[in-house]
Design brief:
With about 350 residues, the chain is of the alpha/beta class. The chain has helices at about 15-30, 45-60, 75-90, 100-110, 210, 225-230, 240-255, 260-275, 305-315, 340-355, and strands spanning about 5, 70-75, 95-100, 115-120, 145-150, 150, 155, 170, 185-190, 200-210, 280-285, 295-300, 320, 330-335. It has 2 domains: about 15-255, 3-Layer(aba) Sandwich (Aspartate Aminotransferase, domain 2); about 255-355, Aspartate Aminotransferase, domain 1. The chain has a 7-stranded mixed β-sheet, sandwiched between helices. A 3-stranded antiparallel β-sheet has the order 11-12-14. Strands 1-13 form a two-stranded parallel sheet. α2 (about 45-60) runs parallel beside α7, α3 packs parallel to α4 and α8 packs parallel to α10 (about 340-355). Bound molecules: 4'-deoxy-4'-aminopyridoxal-5'-phosphate.
Amino acid sequence: MSTGKINFNAGPATLPPEVLREASKAVWNYKNTGYSILELPHRSPEFLDIIEESKALVKELCNLGNDYEVMWVHGGGRAQFAMMPMNFLSANDSAGYMDSGHWAAEAIEYAGYYGKAAILASSKGTKYNQLPEWPSEIPDGLKYIHITTNNTIYGTQYHKVPKTPAPLVGDMSSDIFSCKRDYTKYAMFYAAAQKNLGTPGVALAVVRKDFLKKSADNLPPIFSYRAHVKENSVVNTANVSGIYVALLMLRWIKGKGISAIEEENNAKAKMLYGALDKSKVFIPHVANKAHRSHMNVCFTGINSNIEKAFSALCRDNGIAGVEGHRSVGGFRVSMYNAMPAESVETLVALMNKFETKV
Ligand code: PMP
């Protein structure tokens, strides 16, 4: 642990100590340039190197070829909710959206500003405690189909994605690089960085070139994917330090390897869901094991006294960030790639101890 707290927050989230150490060195003096990374000019050769290395690493980790473009964009996840339809929908066009949770619903709302968002399926009726059933029929003519690969607030995750009749777009903000995945299924995917990729405010966006060709060419450059690609992610003053931390994360991910990361994530999830499934005081939000997120594990207590008592116990034991999202309550334990298995073990031990005392 770097800060002394076990930090289960959903994002900004725990970062690996190696990344924090390297980033703090760069804050003082980036690669002996005499610049802090906080001062490094966005048009310097050093920053260009950061961009190039990060782009190459994203392609390598996703196993993508030259038919894809990689870019860093401002504004986190929500800016992507807006940029997707801005770039790919006009007023009479439709895109299909799977309504699998809070962020999916917000993406749907944003799409409505620019075109028509067709809700292909929704699990809202069951408080998003499962993934929506994949529709047997999908309307023709959709410009793209948007899914949220991991639903951060409700704790569901697509472990398998069917083939889609329109270009597939994924919001991977809360599970990018957490498991082996065929990224070539996606015409485009994006991820806000503050979970598995570093710090907030910056997002990774990856697009297949043939899909990019279908995007609008009459947008203000800062909202245009074409412009971001053309200007190599430096349309304006880029988030230099945020992109640098993302590069450190990419190097860390490559060092561990995605297979090893996936194994660790599976083991952490097994440990925590195992404890929940046998618990008499906690109830997992997602009963269907095939839909359970390995990143965000959501549960409630059997009553509010149990919830208050467990929250206090966590606080007293230096465990932070286990409270559920303000819109749902209960608990949410976020355990992205950088969360060590030992921290999950500590939490599970505390849950077990709590259980014997109530
Ligand atoms: N998509 C998902 C899946 C998220 O979890 C979040 C934020 N937690 C967002 C989008 C929104 O990201 P931001 O706060 O950077 O706008």
